[in-house]
Amino acid sequence: MKKIIIHIPELVTCAGTGPKHGKDMADAGIIKDGAVVVVDGKFAFVGTTDELKRVYEELDEEEVIDASGCAVIPGLVDSHTHFIFGGYRADEFSWRLKGDSYMSIMERGGGIASTMNATRGASEQELLETGKERLDRMLSYGITTVEGKSGYGMDYETELRMLRVMKKLNQEHPVDIVSTFLGPHAIPPEYAGRDREFIDFNLEEVMPKVKEEGLAEFADIFTEKGVFGIEDSRYYLQGAKKLGFRLKVHADEIVDLGGAGMAVEEGCQSADHLLMASDESIAKLAKGSTVATLLPATAFSLGAPYAKGREMIDSGCAVAIASDYNPGSCHTCSIPLIIAISCIYMHMTIEEVLNALTINGAAAVNRQDTVGSIEVGKKADLVILDKPSIHFLPYCTAMNIVKSVMKDGKFVF
Question: Which pTM does this prediction carry?
């Protein structure tokens, strides 16, 4: 099955060996008057329309799409989400807007404990239905690959149920799902004061079953003051690696514990959040292979300072951007909002933002060889915009200008 798209005013390939570091993020690989050929779900040609016509002397009109006036970008990769959960916390958001502290909300039964209870009480069917609705919305924003974390059960049954739901959705929904085990997302009430025992419970009882069923590729931990410290995080990450998991870490979101530097030392695929990452940690990220995954919509929702995206890029880091879609601190997967924040408040160029949302996001979930850019041999995942240039993405502030989305060579939105 073949599809040909021609006369693309800006074909944004984001081509190159991923992840892109530092100044290389300024190059989005734009081809003017571009063209692509898709055969059997993969890109078979990427170049200019003139080059295509020299290679393919005769074009079947039924296979050709004229994209005049519509820029094309790679399918987006949202490399950090918590999109499977039960219940909502809209009331807490309003409490926070009135100035209530996180601790006071926790004392009222809110916070992660609220979501834990709702998720433990949700059936597999309920999680499937809400998960599908959220994936549909992501697809409308141009997201074709998404990472999803467990972590709202923090017990044996619920963690496995969440991951089984993601596995089933990955089989049934057009969006590709990369699953991450986040059992140590917080310390559940039944393990209060027994942090290391809870980590051992995950390593010895839950994660072997996760591996046996092929439910998750990555293991993650929330490294933060009052949650899991550096020593416990290292212990968990090293144990997870022995079990065959790739590694991720929530790091330096509220307090600078040095989690980002630890992530580099432990060989993590990505270190995420990084609002409070020190200059020393940024220097380590710049020299290492760990992707710095920034979550600007979370800082926006919390009214917190943004991560130092500009400084990280200028220091030579590989920066990805993701939504952190979750029921509490950031209940949005709005790519238009994230692009606006990244450009306006984190002082990134639109070219850097697109690389962060595509090839670097793919690298953050170990998919850089198959998705994240428009290159021959990769999956034919692309987004057609209803505007002729990528500069309309920040200009049309927080407005969705996605016209259609192709996944694996098929139009799915």
Answer: 0.97
Question: Are the folds of 2-74+373-411 and 76-364 the same?
Answer: no
> Does domain 76-364 fall into CATH 3.20.20.140?
yes
Q: What is the CATH number of domain 2-74+373-411?
A: 2.30.40.10
* pLDDT tens for each residue of 74-126: 999 999 999 999 999 999 999 989 988 776 787 777 888 899 999 999 999 99
- Per-residue pLDDT tens over the stretch 186-228: 999 999 999 999 999 999 999 999 999 999 999 999 999 989 9
In angstroms, the CA 153 to CA 64 distance is: 48
Residue from 254, 215, 249, 253 nearest 233 by CA? 249
CB 74 within 8 A of CB 13: yes
Q: Euclidean distance between the first and final Cα of the chain, in Å? A: 18
Distances (CA, A) of 226 to 77, 195, 255, 321, 330: 31, 11, 10, 26, 20
Domain extents in the chain: 2-74+373-411, 76-364
Instruction: Answer for the pair 75, 144: CB distance below 8 angstroms, yes or no.
Output: yes
Distances (CA, A) of 370 to 47, 82, 220: 19, 23, 23
